[in-house]
Design a protein that fits this description.
Keywords: Signal. By secondary structure, the protein is of the alpha+beta class. The longest helix has 17 residues.
């Protein structure tokens, strides 16, 4: 019994010390299949993911999908949204969550995207399809902000990657 109590004390003190730590992680989120009118498909919509935590608290979560006109998911874009494929060097869909805008906000995220050479664009049609996808409830997309980003000119960073650097967090970079 003493061993169990001592082990619990060690674990709990480790958790308490962990709460004061900023960390950044990368990963993927996969959405399977989609429907547009009478057509259904089983293809994967793969988002690259960047997350920023303070201890175990998620401060900001960002999902990135490089839109592809040849993907069946492109059917979710309206005719005016599809114009971005020809007007942009690169066209991204992002899904972002901010737990506390006083720490990391969507405005901070848009500023970082501007540093990568991207301007935000409206993609309401695609957003409505993604929000009503069966996987959206699992990821709680109702709490996320969906944004489109268009890279109209080469960025000053001169890299095909997306680099995000929030204050007091480790620099993250992903290749799309």
């Amino acid at each position: 019994m003493k061993f169990f109590l001592m082990a619990m004390l060690v674990v709990m003190s480790g958790c308490a010390a962990y709460k004061n730590y900023n960390q950044s992680t990368k990963g993927q989120v996969v959405i399977r299949g989609g429907i547009y009118q009478k057509e259904a498909w089983d293809d994967l919509l793969v988002f690259q993911r960047m997350s920023w935590y303070h201890g175990v608290t998620l401060y900001y979560d960002a999902l990135f999908y490089k839109a592809d006109l040849n993907s069946p998911f492109a059917k979710w874009f309206s005719a005016s949204e599809k114009e971005f494929f020809t007007k942009c060097e690169s066209f991204l869909v992002t899904v972002g969550y901010s737990a506390d805008p006083s720490k990391i906000s969507h405005v901070n995220f848009r500023e970082q995207m501007k540093l990568n050479g991207y301007d935000d664009v409206i993609i309401n049609n695609f957003a409505s399809y993604l929000r009503t996808h069966p996987s959206a409830a699992e990821w709680r997309f109702q709490n996320y902000k969906l944004m489109g980003f268009c890279k109209r000119s080469p960025s000053r960073l001169n890299t095909p990657n997306i680099a995000i650097n929030f204050p007091s967090f480790r620099h993250l970079e992903i290749e799309l």
